[in-house]
Amino acid sequence: MPHPRPVDVAILSDIHLGTYGCHAVEVLTYLRSIRPGLLILNGDIIDIWNFSKRYFPAAHFEVIREIMNMVTTGVKVVYITGNHDEMIRRYSDLQMGSFEVRDKLVMEIDGRMCWIFHGDVFDATTRGSAKILAKLGGKGYDLLILLNRFINWLLQLAGREKMSLSKKVKNGVKQAVSWIANFEHTAAELAIEKKYDYVICGHIHQPQMRTIVTEKGSVQYLNSGDWIENLTALEYYNKGWHLYQYDHKAATVPTAKKQKPVLNVVSEEVMMHVHSLETRLAG
Q1: 237 and 259 Cβ atoms separated by less than 8 Å
Q2: pLDDT, tens digit, for every residue of 1-24?
Q3: How many domains is the chain built from?
Q4: Does 271 map to a domain?
Q5: What are the residues facing 99 on neighbouring strands?
Q6: Counting CB atoms within 10 angstroms of each CB, which of 41, 49, 76, 266 has the fewest?
Q7: Contact between residue 109 and residue 260 where contact means Cβ atoms under 8 Å apart
Q8: Cα separation of 56 and 61, whole Å?
Q9: In terms of residue numbers, what domain contains 59?
């Protein structure tokens, strides 16, 4: 087995351990292929909304074990809470050795400020009575993933390319496309207002790296995607951010030369200015 790739920072989100859609084996392969200085788990790592004692395979436990192994071997691990693992928010600011739980993280890296949080604070469907419908939707999404896997199995037998039903549904619904665009711009506008260089989210399962420009300025918007459909992560090395895409054939990416960044976690409070905010974001 090749030596793990050194990366300064790795960010994963929306793994959804405990659901049928989770690609736990791929997550495990990826984690074992890297040696990060800092691992950031940006929300929805364990899907407590859809958790069932009847379904939590060994591979899902192995992912947790691998993360804990990183902690015990000196890797700094920050768990940022999301909506599907919101129960963990009661333990925000907990720190045990090199492991800590946060609601958000503000970090300086090579002189540039990064604002990192899951992103569900912008989503009205994750709060109040709408949360019930969201949870029911999550169950339906899990069933759709199961159906999709069966269809892909048949397609592979026929020698045809795989397909993603959920992507086709999302891309075909104008309201969903508009919601994603609004999410990205809301995050960017707040980051520009706070004069951050990067705003890094998860939540919407849409991997992205782009510059968003408004009347007040510009910011680099990054999204780590997910490990249900896209199998992506964000990595920082060689003084820049890179979007990692899991390759089933190679399962690794070229080794990057190691250049130590200058990291500084900032404890200042970020005021979100989002009405009806139910999530505490104090760092």
Answers
A1: yes
A2: 578 999 999 999 999 999 888 999
A3: 1
A4: no
A5: 77, 96
A6: 266
A7: no
A8: 7
A9: 5-266
